[in-house]
Amino acid sequence: MNKEQLFEQIQQKKSFLCIGLDPVLAKIPKHLLKYNDPILEFNKQLIDATHDLCVAYKPNTAFYESRGVKGWETLVNTWKHFPKDVFTIADAKRGDIGNTSAMYAEAFFNEESSAMSFDSVTVAPYMGKDSVSPFLNHPNKWVILLALTSNAGSQDFQAKQSDDQKLYEQVITTAQKWATSDQLMYVVGATKPEEFQNIRQLAPEHFLLVPGVGAQGGSLSAVCEYGLNSQCGLLVNSARSIIYASDGLDFAEKAREEALLLQQEMEQILKAANLI
């Protein structure tokens, strides 16, 4: 899915919601434990209940890798269940030397070798261009580069001043030499809304993946005040507040209700910005 197609989906669904699929077996509804793959059933019912309200899904791969072979099979089968009109994000936060990154890219982008072909993968930039380039070598695939994350520890390095820029600012400006806004996004946490005006000056055309709205306390309106651009430019992720809205038989219905609240708020924001 290219940038224009992503914006078309945003306009059609009146939403820039991304739903994080980060399931923990101990937290999912107990009635699902009767299934051969309870987490897959959990994911499938959530996707079926919400796909018309969101434009992206983002499974965090750690929640699947932690369960070994079975978990990886769940991830593959979850990917297979995604509708074709949603943007898919493998939240893997990979980053290693070139040959290893090339294999990570194969894992998430090459359906022939791994049985999955996500639209995008999150990548850590610390090792520099040669660790990121292998992901960019895949046509029509996206790199979502960690820039300013939502956790408290982001201040340990990302906000450190070096010369006339903070480290996260250097990541944003340097990475634009490697790829255009048609292939490169940035992760910017919703818990840092005061930074969005500055980030939009550094990367006016790029999409931003914004975690931290919902359970982490980020404000959607604060993010949008400075984060929106002419093609929306935001994918706002919410996970726990949606997928764990209920632990009963009605979990998918309640998840839809939570997603609908965010979608309706997003629709008003898009209308106010004359984007729909």
Describe this structure in words.
It holds the Pfam family OMPdecase. GO terms for molecular function: orotidine-5'-phosphate decarboxylase activity. Its EC number is 4.1.1.23. Keywords: Decarboxylase, Lyase, Pyrimidine biosynthesis. The protein has 276 residues and is of the alpha/beta class. It has helices at residues 3-13, 38-50, 62-65, 68-81, 98-109, 111-114, 129-136, 167-175, 196-202, 220-227, 240-243, 251-272, and strands at residues 17-21, 56-59, 87-94, 120-123, 142-148, 161-162, 165-166, 184-188, 208-210, 234-238. Helix 9 (196-202) links the parallel strand 8 and strand 9 (208-210). Helix 5 runs parallel beside helix 7 (129-136). The radius of gyration is 18 Å and the shape is globular.
Secondary structure elements and their pairing?
Elements: H1 3-13, E1 17-21, H2 38-50, E2 56-59, H3 62-65, H4 68-81, E3 87-94, H5 98-109, H6 111-114, E4 120-123, H7 129-136, E5 142-148, E6 161-162, E7 165-166, H8 167-175, E8 184-188, H9 196-202, E9 208-210, H10 220-227, E10 234-238, H11 240-243, H12 251-272
Parallel strand pairs: 1-2, 1-10, 2-3, 3-4, 4-5, 5-8, 8-9, 9-10
Antiparallel strand pairs: 6-7
